[in-house]
Specification:
- The protein is about 70% helix and about 0% strand.
- The longest helix has about 30 residues.
- It is flat.
- It starts with 6 loop residues before the first helix and ends with a helix.
Amino acid sequence: SQGQHSVAERSERFRLRCNPRSRQPWQDASGHRIGHHAFRDASPTRTAGTPMESHADSEGSSLAELVRLALLEVEQQLARARKGRDRGVHKARKALQRLRCLLQLLRPVAGKRARKADRRVRDLRRCFAELRDARARFDLLQGLARSTHWAAEARHMTAVAARAASQLDRVWRRYPRDSEFWDEVERELRVLSTRLLQLPWGEVDADALRVAEARAWRRLEVRMRTDSGECQYETRHAVRCALRRFASIRSVAQQISGTPAPVVFAQLARRCGREGDLWMAEQAVRAAATPRSAGRLRLADALHRERIALCGRNRRALDRLVRADR
């Protein structure tokens, strides 16, 4: 069964299906070993703590393996999502975001092709925005309703969470498993997989990784300068996206080079994501409120004040990290 094989084996078979020319003479169409070769290990095992270069010729080959694993993850999670599982949508979107991060590392050596592929990955990821937002809104409101921090407003929060649950059901009914939407997504993924695997990942070297990281850093600084301090959602969202991208690029680059990657930027990106959660909850509460809903309006105002306070703390923390990292 599929669960009896390692991720490396499954990614290799997925690669062979997308690129049959790379198949070895002793492999069949699915990547299985033929004859006495079947008794050999499918791939070397990397021990914990060893750098990826120990089993790769270059940074580019390590990147190519990460791309194959991400594509395999997308394929598997889309199959789950088609069955109506929200978790599959979330994990597929995360894997697609990893692909966008890897494409940023490729831009110094294949700028135009990498940008074009990045736009296709972005568009594919956006196809699931409605499904993911509906689920995230429900999970967020349900969690706030159970939180002791909002115990005084639990009744109003529970009512808004119930409203979000019905909205989630309506959204999923527009995406049945036999709809043309899922067929189009699978076709796009097949085309995208073939094109991504044909990109020159082997040309990425240590200098290219440094250039990509420096570009992401400059973009983060630009986003920080445009943040006026008014905690506008669009501006803060742009800062969070730039911070998350820089943290991901630095993490992947240091993973490939075998050096330990600091997690402070990734942790701060998650804290900035909390601002978006509070904004989403505030908007949901205001949408469910009426002029006579004094309790829900008070709850929305309280969510707004908490978001503003968190925004200030995150901005100061990011300023300190940027000054320390220069």
